[in-house]
Amino acid sequence: MDVDMGRDGRQDTAELVHRPTRADILAGVRLRERRRRLHLVRWGLTGLFGTGAVLVVTSPESSAFSFVAAVFCAAWIWSIPHLQAHHALRTVAWQGEYRTSVGEAGIATETEHVTLVQRWSVFRGYHETRDHVVLLSRDPNILLVEVLPKRGLRSPQDGERLLALVGRHLPRV
């Protein structure tokens, strides 16, 4: 990985070493969902099927199948972000440990099998949570979400450096 040097000759990068977890991916999926306002659709449909289940129970001529189907649909729609995170984790977990370097040129990630370099121009902005820094892609559907888990940093100073680097190149969303 290339290492960028600042004007004063010091290393101006933040390094992360981690293995992806379901919580990491779920943080990215949830942020993407909120930015696209899909959480409103998901909760609306969950409420609709939940209301349908209540109406089926209170109806004198209802069937157990209708109740089970309505509850199943409500639970399935509510769990979509969790299902997406599970699927994405299965897709990337086999690659093992991720070594990520965030610098002036962008984000470089290496695993035993893959090297990926993403320039800052790929992203539209970032959002910081308690445990993650999530970067959202520039495309209209936000197909790419980069999650940088803070647990992968070596020290709190690395966390400050990471946020300073990201903040120099991307707006907070």
Automatic annotation (TrEMBL):
<keyword id="KW-0472">Membrane</keyword>
<feature type="transmembrane region" description="Helical">
    <location>
        <begin position="40"/>
        <end position="57"/>
    </location>
</feature>
<protein>
    <submittedName>
        <fullName>YcxB family protein</fullName>
    </submittedName>
</protein>
<keyword id="KW-1133">Transmembrane helix</keyword>
<feature type="transmembrane region" description="Helical">
    <location>
        <begin position="63"/>
        <end position="80"/>
    </location>
</feature>
<keyword id="KW-0812">Transmembrane</keyword>
